[in-house]
Amino acid sequence: MMETNILLDLKDVNKVFGNNHVLKNINLQIERGKFITFLGPSGCGKTTLLRSIAGFYTVDQGEVWIDGEMVNDLPPYKRGTPMVFQEYALFPHMTVFDNIAYGLDIMKRPEGEIQQRVEAAMAQVKLTGLEDRYPHQMSGGQQQRVAMARALVMNSLIILLDEPLSNLDAKLREEVRVELRAIQQELGLTVIYVTHDQLEALSMSDQIVVFNKGAIDQYGTPHEIYYEPKTQYVADFIGTTNFADAKVVKYESGMATVQYGQAGDTVTTETSEKLAVGEEVLLCVRPESLRIEQPEIGEFHMTGLIKSSMFLGEKQRYFLVDEIGKEWIVDAYDIGKKTFEGVVRITAAAEKIHIIKKTDS
Amino acid sequence: MMKEKTGIGESIKRLFKDPSTLVLVLTSFIFLVLFVIYPLIVVVFSSGFDNWWTFFSKPRYGRALLNTVVSSSLSAFTATAVGFIYAYAIHYSNIRGKKFFRFIAFMPLLAPSVMSGLAFLLLFGRGGMISQWLNTNFHFELDLYGLPGLWIVQTISYFPLAYMTITGVLRSISPNLEIAAQNLGARGFKLFRTITLKLAFPGVLNAFLLVAINCFADFGNPKLIGGNYSLLAVEIYGEIINNEPGLASVMGIILVIPALLVFWMQNKLLSKGSYSTITGKPVSGLKRITTSKKMDALLFTFNSLISLFIILMFGVTILFAFTKNFGRNNSFTLDHIRQVVFSSSSPAVMNSLVLSLISAILAVAFALVLAYIVIRKPFPGKKLLDFSAVLPIALPGTFVGLALIVAFSKGPIVLQGTAALIIIAMLLKQMPVGYRGLTAAFKQVDKSIEEAATNLGANSRKTLTTIVFPMLQKTVVANFVYAFMKNMNTLSTIIFLITPKWVVASVSIFNYAETGTYYWAAAVAVGLMGATLGTLGVIKLIFRSKVKIFDF
């Protein structure tokens, strides 16, 4: 067998429930030691794919390969893909220790080894001393840690997490995020993490897989996903974005000049898309990339009227309308007491403008 | 466009990939078809047109039907009323001794209902204690045989059933609603009428129907106390003795119809839901005040009288069991107990114990298997299996016994006179209760908990033994205890099936009471209760605090 860095390989995976085509031709390769997030709204297929990897669903078409082995016909208990369930699924009739030791017991590991590995896993998730508690005697946060320890203790190649933080309060969620990422990097684990929370995805992942109605829209680093979304769907799903219709007037080796607005202003920016002159495209600008100030030559700019604004703590968010009635959202950071009103100029550095090809959807 | 593979062909294909499930499904189907569906069909076919004609043309049967309707309606009404007041006193008043009253209402479960009939005869029958006393002191001839006696006995026998059903309903009424009503100015009887009774009504109606169909098909007490006031179940017994299974089948079908109607109505009620399911957390720190001091006194008196009556019934039975001939010769003796409980020539109590234990174990095991495959496994014909598993709950014991004896006394399979048939009859009556309980329990075990076990390497057998069964243990034991107690005390279900070799205690009590050998009847009753309590004690020792057996 060839030694490869690919741990999980999904080839043309399809899954159908009734008439509902939940997974459509999923092709995905996941490298060892990476933190991968499946991101998308509920019903997009991300959990179905996770459960297909764990073996709870058999795929209707395509192949699932784990560590060079085709596992389509392997039942879930032989796949070695420990999972942290959204609702934790702790065994209510067992102590914390017995919960964590369960998988090792099934594997018939020697007593001493079990003891040692369970203790190590408990230390990793900071639960030392709570061995004899029962799940119902613990807080939600502690239960969540037991669920993690139960998966970690298996020393598996891969760990699956199904929205594990969705039942925690906001503050705790942020804490656990940092810890989880630290554990993953320390142990060099391959983690597949399912969430609908874009912030979670951006802050923890090496790579993000964005799902759209059972298909993968984009697979890339958080930076790519955020700043260079491939589709309008991705741009829209992650963060807040301004879209503007534009037309390509010049295209040359990765540099495109586009014309936007009625005035016929143009801007030249880098793009990875292959474009044709005359093609209708979408411009995509993040609110924080826009500035409200006096323009300089060569910048992306327009005139706007501030309709309303709101103070969001670290930023002030403005809602504006430009000359042709299009609405824009602009975020201003570190503003002190200064706020804008009335008619202003909106500008952005050319490199902050991202071009998306128009699709029929 | 891709489509999921569905249909019977696909589910059969899937079933064949999982041979252990296939075996479970097939065994369950064969058992239920053989012992539920087949006997039903045989009964319907053996009733025959001429038997229906006989039934409707002879006034004797018409009278029996009328008597059955009248007496069971009366008894159900009073039993429900008594049960309601008794439960209301325990849950809504500030009286003392609630725990004691709960215990008293639980006591009749320990003995067959025919023991109430026996005790009634010992007190109020010809030569009964109270009748004698009235006669010598006031020259008053007390004759309660027939409807009056039956009415009283069935009220006492079945009020615990009504009490338990209504208790469940009263418990589910959120105190918030009554507190809110009080806050709006309702109090006293107005509060009771507009809120409590209104909310409890569906449950009270359910209790009434339950008691009614139980009385409708009851055999022991009507035969013992009814005298010339003949009831359908007694007529069926007569026709079986006369070897007229066709005529018996006709009456059996008539017994079943109201029971099926009630079963259907209950399911409708259940699926519609009732008001009382809308609840919230009780408002902390607030207590509902619902009864006045005067009302408390009245309720306390009422519950005390009912309790006194029940204690009197148990007391007189025990006195008869342990004296030479109570009332005439009051010297203590163990002879009766020795002769009818511990003698090898009268194995009734021992038979009851053995058959009840075996049947209860099988019933719970079968219920567990059924609940497991129905809830967790896909297979064709699931609805049919579920239906035939629950159906016996709706069938009166008398009918179950009748159907089994008619179906298995001749034809391809003959089981008449075997212990197996008695065990099956008991099992059919109790398995559906366990099946329902375990289905509910299974649904409460979150599927993800089982998946978590599988995910960590446990195959389906390991998941069952290490996760599912331990989580269901409480329900399993509770259902076993319930089935065992019911088996020990059943009379109607097995009256047609027993043989001299396999006579059981409840039948013995009935036989001795009918022939007037009261001290033996009483001795068997005491022996039976002793055996029941002893077994429960052993179960309690095994499971310690894990199971609550005496949940009153």
- C-alpha termini separation of chain B: 59 Å
Q: Output the strand order for the largest sheet of chain B.
A: 1-2
Radius of gyration of chain B: 25 Å
Average pLDDT score of chain A: 88
The secondary structure category of chain A is: alpha+beta
Rough outline of chain B: globular
Please, what is the CATH homologous superfamily of the largest domain in chain B? MetI-like
Main beta sheet strand tally, sense and closure of chain A = 6 strands, mixed
Overall structural domain count of chain A:
2
**Class by alpha and beta content of chain B:** mainly alpha
Name of the top-level CATH class of the largest domain in chain A: Alpha Beta
Low-confidence stretches of chain B: 275-280
Overall morphology of chain A:
elongated
**Number of separate domains of chain B:** 2
Assigned CATH superfamily of the largest domain in chain A: P-loop containing nucleotide triphosphate hydrolases
Domain ABC transmembrane type-1 (chain B): 65-266, 349-537
Protein name (chain B): Iron(III) ABC transporter permease
Family (chain B): Belongs to the binding-protein-dependent transport system permease family.
Transmembrane segments (chain B): 21-45, 65-88, 100-124, 144-170, 191-213, 247-265, 297-322, 353-375, 387-407, 413-428, 494-513, 519-543
Structure in words:
The complex is a heterodimer of chains A (361) and B (552). By secondary structure, chain A is α+β, with helices and mostly antiparallel strands. Chain A has two domains: 6-235, Rossmann fold (3-Layer(aba) Sandwich), CATH 3.40.50; 240-357, Nucleic acid-binding proteins (OB fold (Dihydrolipoamide Acetyltransferase, E2P), Beta Barrel), CATH 2.40.50.140. Chain A contains eight helices and 20 strands. In chain A, the strands form four sheets. A six-stranded mixed β-sheet of chain A has the order 6-7-8-3-9-10, sandwiched between helices. In chain A, strands 13-12-11-14-20 form a five-stranded antiparallel β-sheet, with no helix packed on it. In chain A, helix 2 (96-106) crosses helix 3 (111-124), helix 2 (96-106) packs parallel to helix 4 (140-152) and helix 3 (111-124) crosses helix 4. The longest helix of chain A is centred in the middle third of the chain and has 18 residues, at 170-187. The radius of gyration of chain A is 24 Å and the shape is elongated. The model of chain A has no long low-confidence stretch (mean pLDDT 88). Chain B is globular and about 90 Å long. Chain B starts with 7 loop residues before the first helix and ends in a 9-residue tail after the last helix. Chain B has helices at residues 8-16, 19-47, 49-57, 59-92, 98-106, 113-124, 129-138, 147-172, 175-183, 188-217, 220-225, 232-241, 245-272, 293-322, 335-340, 348-376, 382-390, 397-408, 419-444, 447-455, 460-489, 505-514, 518-543; strands at 323-325, 329-332. Chain B has two domains: 18-43 and 334-552, MetI-like fold; 48-270 and 290-330, MetI-like fold (Orthogonal Bundle), CATH 1.10.3720. In chain B, strand 1 (323-325) and strand 2 (329-332) form a beta hairpin. The interface between A and B is medium-sized, with 32 and 23 residues. Chain B: This is Iron(III) ABC transporter permease. Chain B: It holds the Pfam family BPD_transp_1.
